[in-house]
Amino acid sequence: MYSSYGTKLKLQTSSILSSFTLSHLHLLKDLCTLTDQENNAKEFIVEQNSEKRQIWIPMTKPKSLIKSSHPGTMNVQNLYDVKFLMSLNPADHVDAFISGGRAATKLEKYEDAYHCYKAGLKIVPKHKEIIEDLRELQKIIIKDVETKAAAYEERDYNAVDFCTQDPYPGDVDLFKLEVEILEKKYKIKTETFPQKPFDNLVQQQVANATLAGHNCMQAAKWKEAQKCFTMALQQDPNNYVVRRLRADASNNLDEITATFQDLWLIPKMKRTQDTWKLGGKMLMRFDLLVLAEFWFRKATQMTTGKDDEPKILFQKCRVIRLYGPLTTDCPIKVDFTEYGRAIYATEDIPEGETVFEDSPIVLGKVFDTVHYKTTIQSCDHCAQSLLSPQEYFMETFSTMESDLRDLVLKYWPNTKPIYCKNCKFVKYCSNDCRTQSWNTYHKIICPARSSATARLFKLSENLGKEPDETGTMVEVWDGHFSPLILARVWATIVTTAKSLARESGDIIPTKDQWAMAKSPYRKFIAYGNISVEKDQKEIKALFREIFSDCGDGVSYEITDAEYNGRYYQAVCNLQVFSSPWTPYHKFLEELGRAEEDEDRTLRLLKYLKEKPPASNVCGMFPLHACLNHSCLNNVEVSDGMVHGKGGVTVRAKRTIQKGEEIFTTYIDTAMPRKLRRAWLYKSFNFWCRCPRCQVEGDDADVCTKCGKKAPEGKKFPGCGKCMKAWYCSVACQKIAWKLGHKLVCSTEHSKTSYG
Ligand SMILES: C[S@@+](CC[C@H](N)C(=O)[O-])C[C@H]1O[C@@H](n2cnc3c(N)ncnc32)[C@H](O)[C@@H]1O
């Protein structure tokens, strides 16, 4: 039996499934299992190359019986099995999730373990064993993080250190244009003053006026100071010190043009770091961002010692340039802080209101996240779900009354995928998507193009593993997303650069054309500083092989910096989503409009489920990726339709005041403080400093406020409302309450419980 990609799926007499992938196995699970009726268990024997494994999955209770009769039950050895268990979506497979959780814990895939246990708790909310396992997991994660954190040198984290100040292509022209605007719109003059010979008397007058101006400045009399400096400059227009002083006086009067005019007239060689910085600030207010960047770049170059302001100001210009156009229609702006990009409300946003919507620039398969059951196929290009009636109704589709099945088939949209003509593997929802995909990236990375591209797809299908010389499956890629996403970014850059070259009558793109092609990805600022390429040698070599020949003699060099940078861009900016408008919704809409027999339609209702299964993919979202984390998040992110395609919608969880930062959450905020922090440190490399983390405690044996330790064997009483902070005295509790516990304790976040 062959899958659409040509993968050999052999069904043997003993129902042994060889050479499988998760989706194949899922689709074929009913064909390939032995059912143990007596013990209500199904056996899955999974063979990959020479490795054979047996998993017994209990289908119904009683659990004890299954365990005792099959010592190998739940012999879950690796993530394939964990993922497989998760994909079964059974109603009563708590044991499967326990085993999956334990296996994932052993494999140090803590997030997977956590989601396995959570799935188990969904079935039996207070399952004792799972709660114990979750506690154990919590301890393991904290220990792991503490060990790793101790091994790293504690660094003063500052996002600007990772940001480049390289000019963008086209900036030279923009620079000239902005100088013109400066002269024409803001009437900034470029003047030189002849050197006047002046005698002692004039010199004395200049000195007196300067001193008087200086005294006025001290007394905060800016207007008077400005007048004094003007008198001095009339006598000595080339005195750059006085000009700088007058700029300060004008700045204090908020006279932008006057301030900048004086700074502009100071010759470049005479401008201090401070002058460049102030000039940049004025240029930002003129909205002349390329010029402003130039001035802040100069200020950065002249910085000695610790002064991050010019660097931060520079990046502020960058985010206005990059994100300004994306936020014109929403009540937000993107700014730059010491922890990178951040989104702020530009007006009050009522609870429930949409804050913004976003669509992905690049999307690809979800990887390594067992809780997302990606069994539903979707368009490889636009992520539209290709959910079939069989996948939606599952076994009930064949058992429902035939007239109902006919009704479904009549109104269910066509979800038959359209395949790439070359590889006959990659699926699309339409010819349009197939053509667009081909023209933008697929022609470079189509698995039919070379053995290297075929290997990349295969690797992605096998969740990052491939056989080594001995046939043992080894992990070649340990990213949490499919390596195809990176391949797609590079392939898109290549095709864009090639077409820019073609437009100017060339074949090989110029440096500028490459830079233009990379420009859409500038929005994805990445802060990774730990080199990943050492650990991913194999896949890096594979990418190098693929992109060394992009056709027409063009190659794209994947340097170490390029590899690391793009890897972190993806890591820092990906978000899982799925199109909320599925074939199921279209079906319901069509059925609703149709004039069908009411009785028949009503009979169908009992087969409808609350929510259709999702076809999750992950995408790089330019705006959404700027959302920082808080354990007291004020927005919620959900799947949404954006310009007719799948994307994300960000809604206010409560009223957000103008100027407040917009925070999402990266983790399950029901987790206790210590675990939340460990999780964030492990996955995102930062220690959370949100208000909740500041006012909640970790243990009852330490006073959350003053840090005092409880006597041996004793515990301090906890906050009666939230039980998330413990105090040694009423005094400590009162102080903590005033300092912020009150604000946090009254929120719904504090009412959540974990496990
Ligand atoms: C998806 S990005 C969010 C936007 C980010 N500031 C940026 O510009 O890339 C995630 C990264 O932002 C930073 N971050 C997010 N929330 C943070 C917080 N509460 N404290 C410190 N850093 C945070 C961390 O570096 C994290 O890895």
Structure report:
By secondary structure, the chain is of the alpha+beta class. It has 4 domains: 10-154, Serine Threonine Protein Phosphatase 5, Tetratricopeptide repeat; 162-318, Tetratricopeptide repeat domain (Serine Threonine Protein Phosphatase 5, Tetratricopeptide repeat, Alpha Horseshoe), CATH 1.25.40.10; 404-563, no CATH class; 673-746, no CATH class. The chain contains 28 helices and 19 strands. Strands 1, 2, 3, 4 and 5 form a 5-stranded mixed β-sheet that branches. Strand 1 and strand 2 form a beta hairpin. Helix 20 packs across helix 21. The two termini are 44 Å apart. The structure holds S-adenosylmethionine. S-adenosylmethionine binds at residues 339-342, 525, 527, 572, 625-630, 684-686, 688-690. Keywords: Metal-binding, Methyltransferase, S-adenosyl-L-methionine, TPR repeat, Transferase, Zinc, Zinc-finger. Residues 315-667 form the SET domain. This is SET and MYND domain-containing protein 5.
List the helices and strands and how they pair.
Layout: E1 10-11, E2 17-18, H1 22-28, E3 34-36, E4 41-48, E5 51-58, H2 63-69, H3 79-87, H4 94-106, H5 110-123, H6 128-151, H7 171-184, H8 200-218, H9 222-235, H10 240-252, H11 256-265, H12 273-285, H13 289-301, H14 309-323, E6 332-337, E7 340-345, E8 354-358, E9 362-365, H15 389-393, H16 396-399, H17 402-411, E10 418-419, E11 427-428, H18 431-445, H19 451-461, E12 465-467, E13 473-475, H20 484-503, H21 511-518, H22 537-548, H23 560-573, E14 574-577, H24 583-593, H25 598-605, E15 617-620, E16 628-629, E17 635-642, E18 645-652, E19 663-664, H26 673-684, H27 691-695, H28 730-745
Parallel strand pairs: 2-4, 16-19
Antiparallel strand pairs: 1-2, 3-4, 4-5, 6-7, 8-18, 9-15, 10-11, 12-13, 14-15, 17-18
Helix pairs in contact: 3-4, 4-5, 4-6, 5-6, 6-26, 8-9, 9-10, 10-11, 11-12, 12-13, 12-14, 13-14, 18-20, 19-22, 20-21
The structure holds S-adenosylmethionine (SAM).
S-adenosylmethionine binds at residues 339-342, 525, 527, 572, 625-630, 684-686, 688-690.
